[in-house]
Design brief:
Elements (H helix, E strand, L loop, with lengths): L9 H15 L8 H15 L4 H10 L3 H12 L10 H22 L3 E7 L5 H13 L7 E8 L2 H9 L1 E3 L8 H7 E4 L2 E4 L1 H4 L2 E5 L13 E6 L8 H13 L1 E9 L12 E5 L2 E4 L1
Helix pairs in contact: 2-4, 3-4, 5-6
The structure holds S-adenosylmethionine.
């Protein structure tokens, strides 16, 4: 059945826009009114509410408000992702950065790799990182590799943890990786233990004041997330990424994003790849 959607007045849209901005940092333009109607009308229906004003009051006053905020956030996030999205990032890791780190490890004895996939959606990005790292370091000994994968959308995190994908989602995954890193479960392919054991998924809101991680990262991937934020939120977040990177650590961003205005913090290496200054 086609969801007809509830009417959303301009005033109601402003209230929801402000609430979503406060909770997630996502900055909805005026053009996103239809999107709000399409994504939230189901919640109004599920709760037996008759208008967006009623839904707003529910989010403010109901004893269930905290749970419903989670539902609201899960509805408004955009989770589009793919395995090996922007393949050039993974090529750079496999052919350039990881071999250099491996050589350095042989020289110094330091064999730790820490990666953060921030805004990891349904897991394709951190699992692609895991496969790439396992391939790159497979001939090395004693490497301790950990990937932290975070998102604020609790439903998408459950999908990521399950790591079960339909065959067509695996189209960008090299064939030999499919046989090495996945197993079949009915119609789906499930990520195997080799990758799952080095990826940890956590709920984390990127606009929250401080991050709980104590140790700095070699690499941060934050791709196709900051495009939803305004300049103020984006720059504050990037400064925090900077402080959570090791000296000379690498920052990867999405194809339509740039850090050129932060030259004092990030040195441009190649398209959407930067190094901490
Ligand atoms: C378009 S997906 C990008 C996924 C992946 N990084 C990629 O490039 O394929 C954006 C993800 O950012 C998450 N996100 C949006 N706002 C966030 C916030 N304030 N804190 C944490 N994650 C957020 C969304 O839930 C969504 O899963």
């Amino acid at each position: 059945m086609i969801d007809q959607g509830f009417d959303l007045t301009d005033r109601e849209f402003l209230l929801f826009r402000e609430l979503i901005y406060r909770e997630t940092g996502i900055n909805l333009s005026d053009k996103k009114k239809k999107l709000i109607v399409a994504r939230l009308s189901k919640r109004l229906r599920a709760l037996g509410l008759e208008s967006f004003t009623g839904y707003y009051q529910y989010l403010k006053e109901s004893p269930e408000a905290d749970n419903e905020i989670v539902n609201l956030i899960n509805r408004v996030t955009t989770n589009k992702t793919d395995f090996f999205r922007e393949m050039h990032h993974f090529d750079f890791l496999l052919q350039d950065l990881f071999p250099r780190m491996a050589a350095e490890g042989r020289k110094t004895g330091s064999r730790r790799l820490r990666i953060w996939s921030a805004g990891c959606s349904s897991g394709e990005e951190p699992y692609s990182l895991a496969m790439t790292a396992l391939e790159a370091f497979k001939k090395e000994r004693g490497w301790d590799i950990r990937i932290l994968a975070t998102d604020l959308d609790t439903e998408i995190l459950q999908k990521a943890i399950a790591g079960s994908y339909p065959a067509q989602a695996l189209a960008p995954v090299p064939r030999d990786y499919v046989s090495r890193y996945f197993f079949r479960a009915g119609e789906n392919y499930v990520v195997g233990d080799a990758c799952k054991s080095i990826v940890a998924f956590r709920k984390l809101n990127l606009i929250n004041g401080t991050f709980p991680m104590k140790h700095p990262f070699d690499i941060i991937f934050c791709r196709n997330v900051i495009i939803y934020f305004d300049a103020k939120t984006k720059d504050a977040l990037l400064k925090r990424y900077h402080s959570h990177l090791k000296n000379d650590g690498h920052m990867f961003i999405g194809h339509s994003e740039s850090l050129m205005h932060m030259k004092d913090k990030f040195r441009f290496l190649k398209h959407t790849v930067y190094q901490k200054v």
